[in-house]
Amino acid sequence: MLPMMDEGQERLRRATVGIMGVGGLGSPAAMYLAAAGVGHLVLADPQTPELSNLNRQILHWTEDVSTTSKVASAARKLRSLNPEVEVAQHPVEVNAENINEVFAGCDMIMDCLDSLPPRMVLNAHAIKTGTPIIHGAVEGWHGQVTVILPGRTPCLACLFPRPATVTRTIPIMGATAGVFGSLQAGEAIKLLTGIGDVLASRMLVGDLQYQYWNVVKIGRAEDCLACSEKI
Fold it and tell me: Model pTM greater than 0.85?
């Protein structure tokens, strides 16, 4: 087993993983990827830490509130956790004009976002470049995770076909973000090493309040405006 373990570790060391959103999901995902030995992390987030974030955004601490960018705060802790990891910082709002530059060379991108418009920017980039996405989303005690392989599985537009109309603040339990961010990291590690079965065309949904867990099959939307073969 040791040679196989060494081979998997080397794949992680050579890998470059983008993380779009370094908040509730991005914090645990980044920590476990760095701890696992992923060699290159690319962090993108335009925000600075806020006091109300700290219950779930565990890479950001009290001294970081309103004093630094989230990517700088995260990079400092990740390098302390694993000095061998290379961390690229992009304290910018990723858009259609800069996404190619921000995530150039990434083997996959973690969708750790909390709103739909940037997800669609990420989705278009993934379809164009063939870059896998590890999608995660949380609300309250509930969350979901799936792996998107462009051309083979549903894309983000298949999952979210209509523009979001919710304008209220979405409550998130810190532990929920921690669990689902960790699950995203696990899927990324499996995809990079070829170990196990990733959640491709399947979605894991779970609720920590009632400990309801299920894996459901998901399919591509025939009329998807982003990835349908008809367009």
Answer: yes
